[in-house]
Design goal:
By secondary structure, the protein is an alpha/beta fold. It folds into 3 domains: 44 residues, no CATH class; 104 residues, no CATH class; 300 residues, no CATH class. Helices cover 37% and strands 16% of the residues. The chain is built from 18 helices and 15 strands. The strands form 4 sheets. A 4-stranded parallel beta sheet has the order 4-15-13-14, sandwiched between helices. α8 runs parallel beside α16. The longest helix has 17 residues. It is globular, with a radius of gyration of 25 Å. About 1% of the residues have low confidence.
Length: 470
């Protein structure tokens, strides 16, 4: 209260100081002012000035740059967005996170490779707000506006490009896509999870661990790429959790991370099943429920990853025909009372399921129908349809990177989203597009994870038609 607002909230306070000095300049605090000893009307007036997030349901757009040093986004607009949604006003609220935006624009002229002008985004948002209030035309969905690296300085100074109902998050390869996904969802994050880019077994159980640390999953091969080093710097990471043994993530990567100043922990077992069990032990103590999926394929475990991550539930693996001892041991150790068996009997046999505590099977005829079945269970458990994430079911890497993003939510969007797997070669009969078509009125935004090789234009067009109700 000892600031420029004090004459408004506490006009009776003078302390023998002339009126002009009631406005205390920065770095000149009034140590004698006792806020808690002032009359009751003072905290009442402070409450009137405080942000509560209760907008009354009036249309509101918030826009904030990721590089704003005056009002850091993590302690300002990120918090306020949660407050507005917490009051139940999310339908009348949009939040746009502008990568590279600052509080004012002069730095964008000095360093256009780092900063982007935020004024065109404000002007666009104002036009959208005007149309929303005057004619009821809803603005674009909340979300992340990536830095337009390929745009000219003139284009950046005059255009913004707010989030679209369907967008793509992709890099030059799977490592680049994981980085792009991290940028779209995570700001300053002290911990990252590192997994192998080309070997899925050890990485399948990583999503709940990433959610526990509020961290992205970043992918590596035998070295840290320059782009990955840049992303670690952007995140401000001080520690890394490497999942898998040296065959998955070599010691050279650990040494490179250590050389960057990160504290590195490796979680690994002698095989994929023991690694998943070790990851389960690294989560907070106990697990009333656990996900159990096949360790021989990736799709079922990754379909369940957002549900497991959001609930803090471990993902455990087993061979199809015999419950692996490492899995049985950790279930007993954690005191697990219920298991979610993901996949059909060919993935996890009935004999194996019968050995699990209170098993509930979630499955479809194939990996794509199983993905939809898991998504429907997610809706039962309170996951959001506001934003849906799509990855190919033909490979594991993009879906692995998608799970932490869906759990945390794209920056600006709501958390606890869903991940659906699609078959890029058979778009027309995709269970994912059928689900999207049936819930199109509730879906505001869909993010495709991966480039054209993973999700080609035909699949993109089918998804666009589905969310348009066609």
């Amino acid at each position: 209260v000892a600031s420029t607002y004090r004459p408004v909230v506490d006009p009776e306070y003078t302390n023998g100081v002339a009126a002009p000095r009631l406005i205390v300049p920065p770095s000149d605090p009034d140590a004698q002012y006792d806020y808690h000893g002032r009359p009751d009307f003072v905290p009442e007036r402070v409450a009137e000035l405080s942000n509560t997030g209760d907008t009354g349901g009036a249309p509101l757009i918030t826009l904030h740059g990721t590089l704003d040093a005056l009002l850091p986004i993590s302690t300002d607009s990120d918090v306020y967005a949660d407050m507005v949604r917490g009051h139940g006003h999310g339908d009348a609220f949009r939040y746009y996170v502008i990568e590279g935006g600052t509080h004012v624009d002069p730095k964008a002229d000095d360093h256009p490779e780092v900063f982007r002008p935020i004024l065109p985004c404000f002007l666009d948002a104002l036009d959208r707000l005007d149309a929303w209030v005057v004619s009821g035309t809803e603005p674009p969905p909340s979300g992340f506006v990536p830095f337009p690296a390929d745009a000219s300085e003139e284009e950046r100074a005059n255009t913004c490009g707010l989030p679209a109902p369907l967008d793509r998050v992709a890099g030059d390869d799977r490592i680049g896509t994981a980085i792009a996904a991290s940028r779209a969802a995570f700001g300053i994050t002290p911990t990252v999870v590192i997994a192998a880019a080309d070997r899925f077994p050890d990485a399948l159980a990583a999503a709940p661990l990433a959610a526990h640390h509020d961290a992205p999953v970043l992918l590596v091969r035998d070295e840290l790429t320059e782009a990955l080093r840049d992303e670690l710097h952007r995140l401000g990471a001080v520690s890394a959790v490497v999942v898998g043994g040296t065959a998955a993530v070599p010691d050279a990567v650990v040494e490179a991370l250590t050389d960057l100043g990160l504290e590195v922990e490796r979680i690994a077992g002698r095989d994929r099943y023991a690694t998943a069990a070790a990851i389960a032990r690294a989560l907070p103590a106990g697990a009333d429920e656990a996900v159990v999926a096949s360790g021989e394929t990736f799709a079922d475990a990754l379909s369940a990853a957002p549900l497991a991550a959001a609930a803090g539930t471990p993902i455990l693996l087993t061979p199809p025909a015999e419950l692996h001892p490492a899995t049985a041991d950790v279930l007993s150790e954690l005191g697990t009372r219920r298991t979610l068996v993901v996949g059909g009997a060919r993935a996890v046999s009935e004999a194996v399921a019968a050995q699990l505590p209170a098993p509930r099977r979630v499955a479809g005829a194939d990996r794509y129908e199983t993905s939809v079945a898991v998504a429907r269970l997610g809706l039962e458990r309170g996951h959001s349809l506001e934003e849906v994430y799509i990855a190919t079911g033909r490979d594991f890497a993009d879906a692995l990177a998608a799970a932490p993003v869906a759990t945390a939510g794209e920056w600006g969007a709501v958390p606890r989203g869903l991940v659906l797997l699609v078959d890029p070669e058979h778009t027309g009969r995709s269970p994912a597009t059928a689900l999207l078509r049936s819930v199109a009125d509730d879906v505001r935004r869909v993010l495709l994870l991966g480039g054209q090789a993973a999700i080609p234009t035909g699949t993109e067009d089918a998804i666009r038609a589905a969310i348009s109700g066609r």
